[in-house]
Design brief:
Largest sheet: 6 strands, mixed
Shape: elongated
Helix content: 25-40%
Distance between the termini: 80 Å
CATH topology of the largest domain: Heat Shock Protein 90
Number of strands: 20
Radius of gyration: 29 Å
CATH class of the largest domain: Alpha Beta
Number of helices: 17
Strand order of the largest sheet: 12-11-15-16-18-17
CATH architecture of the largest domain: 2-Layer Sandwich
Number of domains: 4
Oligomer: single chain
Strand content: 15-25%
């Protein structure tokens, strides 16, 4: 029988193999056999009877657990089988924690160790209490906004929604004793990064993997991050393909709204916040790539994640609040909803990749969309250059009204015109009294005059 998740062979006993025993105890249990080589062939051990007494005592004294040690004989060769049961509490060896994973032994450190200890204690990351922050530190405005969302969704009893903030937070299971949980801070604190490093979103527009044109950061509570991230991507980072049906102007984005929103929600709700890197969204001319740190449930792989499965949120308290607000479902269908939205919108389905704790969701843009924005769609329907200039001016005013600190270079990327053309149009708008520059070229901003 070859080595596996539950079986390890050693030719002779060394005290360092206590690490393997702790690794089995921290996983699903297992069998450590002394006196066999790596292929499982019996080579025998000396002093088997002495080890039969010594090993259980060493395991008890150094690891604090009990194991069964059985003497086996094949002809004149003796082996020892050490049977290790799984333990619900973490088992350390000289202050370090080990875990049997596949046929290897891994030392747990950093975020992986934190996750292991929390899981062993029956806790989740977002359920850990946070000292030095109280209900008075939460945003009443964000809580009020949550009440409106929950009222519209009908997923909380009306009488609960009429309760004061402390009662509502408690009923949402966001407290533990006298403390708020991490979930409460992320959901309702105006500046959760004071307590959770990296709890924000970075968005960047790239001409290539190394050529960043411009970028933004989205901070605040998770509800605000969700809304602002989706809005900013659609208004600043994605260009709509435009066509006309009669006199009606039709805008088509490369990613359907529901698919983009669901992807952002999944990233914010299910990310591993013990990793200090923020969610990163890279936008290119032909695709958008979203990255977030993710931890799948035990036994899951990418195929399981992409297939039918029940809901197993990594941050159940955060997920519950978003569910009550009507922002998500609770059936484990987030990825399926993204795929369905793309199919319904005639957009390519995203490519989802998982490597360790890195989860990428990449939305390719269709060739039809790229062709539409690569050509002058205004000229295609017979408009004159004067009308084209007017439309460009309107787009500039709309963009700068929504994003006063957007540079003309950023506007050019968004609209799909040269920087020189945008600068000339902006100068003309300034002469017409429709646009004004406030402050210096660097550090200033634009003001659209009504």
């Amino acid at each position: 029988m070859p080595e596996s998740q539950h079986i390890e062979y050693k030719q002779l006993w060394r005290d360092e193999y206590l690490k393997w025993i702790s690794g089995f105890a921290n996983a699903e249990g297992g069998l450590l056999v002394i006196g066999r080589d790596d292929s499982g062939a019996v080579v025998g051990i000396k002093d088997a009877k002495k080890l039969l007494e010594d090993i259980p005592n060493k395991v008890r004294d150094l690891l604090g657990i009990l194991v069964a040690v059985n003497l086996r004989s094949e002809g004149k060769l003796d082996t020892l089988e050490i049977v290790v049961e799984p333990y619900s509490n973490p088992i350390s060896h000289k202050g370090k924690y080990y875990l049997r994973s596949g046929s290897t032994l891994q030392e747990l450190k950093g975020a992986a160790l934190d996750r292991f200890i929390l899981r062993a204690q029956g806790k989740t990351w977002d359920g850990v209490p946070v000292p030095h922050v109280g209900l008075a530190d939460l945003s009443t405005a964000v809580i009020a906004s949550f009440r409106k969302l929950a009222t519209a969704s009908g997923r909380l009893e009306r009488k609960l929604l009429d309760e004061p903030d402390p009662t509502l937070i408690e009923k949402l299971k966001l407290t533990e004793g006298d403390y708020l949980k991490r979930a409460a801070v992320l959901l309702f604190h105006e500046d959760p990064e004071r307590f959770v490093t990296g709890a924000f979103v970075k968005i960047g527009f790239f001409r290539s993997e190394t050529d960043l044109v411009y970028h933004d950061e989205i901070h605040g509570d998770l509800f605000t991050q969700t809304a602002q991230t989706v809005d900013l991507i659609r208004t600043k980072y994605l260009k709509a393909a435009i066509h006309y049906e009669g006199l009606q102007r039709i805008e088509t984005f490369p990613i359907p709204y529901e698919a983009l929103r669901e992807a952002v929600l999944n990233a914010l709700i299910h990310r591993d916040y013990s990793t200090t890197a923020p969610i990163q969204i890279k936008v290119f001319a032909d695709h958008l790539r979203l990255w977030n740190p993710a931890v799948l449930p035990d036994g899951w792989d990418l195929a399981k994640l992409l297939g039918d499965h029940a809901s197993h949120p990594f941050n159940p308290d955060i997920a519950n609040a978003f569910f009550r607000a009507g922002e998500i479902e609770s059936w484990g269908r987030g990825i399926q909803r993204i795929l369905e939205a793309c199919r319904a919108g005639g957009a390519p389905e995203p490519v989802i990749r998982l490597s360790g704790y890195d989860l990428w969701t990449e939305f390719p843009f269709s060739s039809e969309y790229l062709k539409a924005i690569g050509e002058d769609s205004v000229e295609k329907v017979g408009k004159t250059s004067v009308e084209t200039s007017v439309e460009t001016s309107v787009e500039i005013l709309n963009l700068l009204s929504a994003h006063p600190r957007m540079t003309l270079s950023e506007v050019s990327v968004k609209i799909g015109r040269s920087v020189r053309a945008i600068e000339m149009a902006a100068a003309k708008l300034a002469k017409q009294g429709k646009l004004r520059r406030i402050g210096p070229k660097k550090g200033g901003h634009w003001e659209v005059l009504k």
